[in-house]
Amino acid sequence: MEDLGRRLSSHRVDGGRYWRTVGAALACVSAGVAIAAVVVAVPTLTAARPVAYAALATLLGLPIAVVQLGHAVRSGRDEHLDRYEHGLVHRTARRRRAWRWAEITRLSAGDETAADRVPVTPIDRLVRTLGWRYGCRVRFADGGRLRFDEYTSEAVALGRALRERRPDAVSDASRAVLLVPAGALVTFVGTGAALVLAVRFLASPGADGLGGSASAAIILGLVAGLTVCALSFGVLVMTAISVYRDLR
């Protein structure tokens, strides 16, 4: 590794918190689906059908689990970000990467004051628990990328130091960010419409002649469609949470 001078600070990433939030989100989803399945399957609980619909709202935990799982996998074990006089080092138990300040090509950091706000609403507390009040993304000339959030110790101080080192690399990613919820909205509407058409077809007389394999394929398609709908709707909800957080 090239000489980057003296190490100025070291920032540990608490990867275990990612795994814990993944487990909590999946447990919430599993409990909600189980409750809904029991209510629907037991004939004597017909009057409790609204409870089943409400329990399905826990599917919103699925996209949260997916996002946090992605962070956990990328984080690896024993992850640290070390700031040196002349560059930045990213190291885990298996890999070590280093860049000079001049190699930063793009830097996108969140609001530094967001992490200091006292959570008031349940959404505020959820955002704090997930470490989403502050985040920073960095791109380098060699194609490397880094991201860190509140699960990284002194994340705001590290992000501020990067901005001070490379103010010319700070970018406004607002247009790119809009592509994600826009794509999620199109996916949600399109998949939802397809699900409605599929359910109407299954309820029509024309579905009586379907064989067992065709019916099974349609049911699997419905399950996949519901999953895609839940994921895309979750992205929309998380976007709304992000906008709500920024407007506070």
TrEMBL record:
Keywords: Membrane, Transmembrane, Transmembrane helix. The chain crosses the membrane at residues 21-45, 51-73, 176-203, 215-244. It comes from the Bacteria. The keyword Transmembrane applies. This is PH domain-containing protein. It comes from Catenuloplanes atrovinosus. The lineage of its organism: Bacteria, Bacillati, Actinomycetota, Actinomycetes, Micromonosporales.
